[in-house]
Amino acid sequence: MSEFIEGRNAVAEAMRSGQRVNRILIAKGMRPDPLVDEIVGLAKEAGIAVVHVDRAELDRESERGHHQGVMARVPEFNYANFRTVLDACAGKERSLIIVLDQVTDPGNFGAVIRSAEVAGADAVIVADRRSAPVTAVVHKAAAGATAYLPVIKVTNLTQTLKGLKDAGYWIAGTSERGASSLWEAPIEGRIVLVLGSEGSGLSRLVSENCDFLVRIPVAGRVGSLNVAQAATVFAFEWVRRGTEG
Length: 245
Known about the structure:
- By secondary structure, this protein is an alpha/beta fold.
- It has helices at about 10-15, 35-45, 55-60, 80-90, 105-120, 135-140, 155-165, 205-210, 225-245; strands at about 1-5, 25, 50-55, 70-75, 95-100, 125, 150-155, 170-175, 180, 190-195, 210-215.
- α1 packs parallel to α2 (about 35-45) and α5 packs parallel to α9.
- The radius of gyration is 19 Å and the shape is elongated.
């Protein structure tokens, strides 16, 4: 099976990273663009076919119609192996893994992957049920980060959290009702950040398997951020702690 990566930035990052690409589709009549020129050049170097098609064809293939005139047909997304990622992180004093519990919006999922990769996280983990799969929308929202950051799909989040604890991680669940403020909570070292859906938050079993619950202090009238924004705030507080001293 195959799927598409949509958008100039996402396709460019896929090409730069060496991700497997079957062919590049570019809308006919596009204005000159340096990023598109780079994509075409990288494709030629790699021996990947570049096909100029009517924009209507891209519209038909696009998941949401935001392809920007550029799409890449790629093999079905290859999820990373949980044990392989843990082995790669063994012995690291600082390691960040983000776990998403029932996050079904692909735009939010992709934005979380982007923030996690920029923050230097080691992986994003999702459940194989009640979670958005990696699709063209996720690739585009991640702005190419799916080409670099391992994304892991597991069958049981609670068992996965136990495995992460055994590997030396502290599990921080995020909740607006958390007892600890983010500025005071022990968000450093080997940390797993668990974020739930915007509607219902963390599920009961996942919450019970967290070592502590932490909230983002707010000053405005709206009580919380969306999951992608919250993931960014938490991840970069972990980055900040690592730069202290």
